[in-house]
Design brief:
about 220 residues; Arc Repressor Mutant, subunit A; about 60% helix; two-stranded antiparallel ribbon; about 5% strand; 2 domains
């Protein structure tokens, strides 16, 4: 997904997002309404991908544009307007996840360190061939439910990267911009998420007859 595709984009002859935002700053309400209608589909899609509930996604969308309206003067024009808006939406969606889980989660901006790098990747405890083709499995409703549940159990700093990259289709660079992370941080967290989710799915759908026990590491 290219940077220009983060929003729906203007039609030929229409003002771009930045021009609409500048007009909104000057009090032109119609310009703000146009910006909202242009970006709302992407905001809702992103919110639904993170929260995975319609009502929550609708609430996030509403709160996002309220925040945009209240902070028009704070946009420093250092990134695309769509990136700024979607970053606000991401933050609101994460707040909903925090409330839903009732726990304090690690901040997304925490940098990769010795405990969150490639060298400390967890070794899978269950390795097995899948009974069916993974592409066929992915279309089954029970697989989608297992994945949904597994995402709920992941630390948010991993699940959100997986949702943005592998479900919503954002590039690594776009994901980094939306979450205000480095590209290397996104790559590490995505790999961790994929490993954990794959093991969860393998435990459910792996073929026991071809199971390989992970080696025991003696300290």
């Amino acid at each position: 997904m290219a940077e220009s595709e983060l929003g729906t984009g203007p039609s030929p002859g229409e003002p771009d997002d930045l021009e609409l935002l500048r007009r909104a700053r000057r009090g032109e309400w119609e310009a703000f309404e146009t910006l909202v209608s242009r970006l709302q589909p992407r905001v809702y899609q992103l919110a639904f991908g993170i929260a995975r509930q319609q009502q929550d996604a609708e609430d996030v969308t509403q709160q996002t544009f309220l925040s945009v309206m209240e902070n028009l003067d704070k946009f420093r024009e250092e990134a695309a307007v769509s990136t700024w808006v979607l970053r606000i939406a991401t933050n609101h969606a994460l707040q909903i996840l925090r409330k839903r889980r009732g726990v304090k989660m690690v901040a997304l901006e925490q940098p990769v360190d010795g405990g969150d790098g490639y060298a400390t990747m967890p070794m899978p405890e269950f390795i097995a061939q899948w009974k069916e083709n993974p592409e066929d499995l992915a279309q089954r409703s029970e697989v989608k439910q297992v994945l949904h549940n597994a995402l709920d159990e992941l630390d948010a700093k991993y699940s959100i990267v997986f949702v943005l990259r592998d479900i919503e289709g954002y590039s690594t660079q776009e994901t980094a911009e939306l979450l205000d992370l480095s590209v290397s941080n996104v790559k590490v967290r995505l790999l961790r998420a994929r490993l954990q989710l794959r093991e969860r799915l393998t435990q459910q759908f792996g073929d026991e007859a071809h199971r390989i026990l992970a080696p025991v590491i003696h300290e």
